[in-house]
Amino acid sequence: MWIAFIGLYKILRRLWHEPAFRALIIVEGLMIGGGMVFYHFVEGWSWLDSAYFCVVTVATVGYGDFSPATPYGRLFTIFYIILGVIMLGIFIQLAGKTAYESLQERAQRQQADKSVKDLGKDSKPDNP
User: Fold this and answer.
1) First vs last Cα of the chain: how many Å apart?
2) How confident is the model over 66-86, as pLDDT tens digits?
3) How many Å apart are CA 28 and CA 36, to the nearest integer?
4) Right CATH for 22-101 from 1.10.10.10, 3.90.320.10, 1.10.287.70, 3.40.50.10490
5) Contact, 36 vs 51, CB < 8 A?
6) Dist. CA 75–CA 69, nearest whole Å
């Protein structure tokens, strides 16, 4: 189990150095913040309920315990869900690309280490 957490940590640490990932985090924060403001004032929900609904919706979990009651809230939610799915797709693409690049680098390092070891074996003189 710890190996999975360590692998996830390494991927997230590497992702953080990607400008596109940092921009995605900022956009997600703005999206959740904007949704919170909208649902608080249009639907009359508390700030916590608004935040909860936004996170559940953007994460595509959708428990169904909250749903917009006003036509404006429903219309906004349609676009909010579409944008949330797009953002999730971008995150998955970035994470997958980063994980793939990490695996490629590890394989290249292993290949280079193997080549160095093989060179060391070839350079040793044979003792009869």
Assistant:
1) 51
2) 899 999 999 999 999 999 899
3) 12
4) 1.10.287.70
5) yes
6) 10
SS3 41: helix
Provide the token pair at 75: 């219309």
Section 12-38 average pLDDT = 88
The whole-angstrom separation of Cα 42 and Cα 94 is 34
CA pair distance 115, 2, nearest whole angstrom: 31
State how far the Cα of 95 lies from the Cα of 59, in Å rounded to an integer: 15
In Å, how far are 3, 12, 27, 47, 97 from 91, measured between CA atoms?
22, 11, 11, 26, 10
Tokens standing for residue 78:
């349609």
Domain residue spans of the chain: 22-101
Q: What is the distance between the alpha carbons of residues 114 and 60, in angstroms, rounded to a whole number? A: 45
- Answer whether 14's CB lies under 8 Å from 98's CB: yes
Question: Is the separation of the CB atoms in 47 and 40 below 8 Å?
Answer: yes
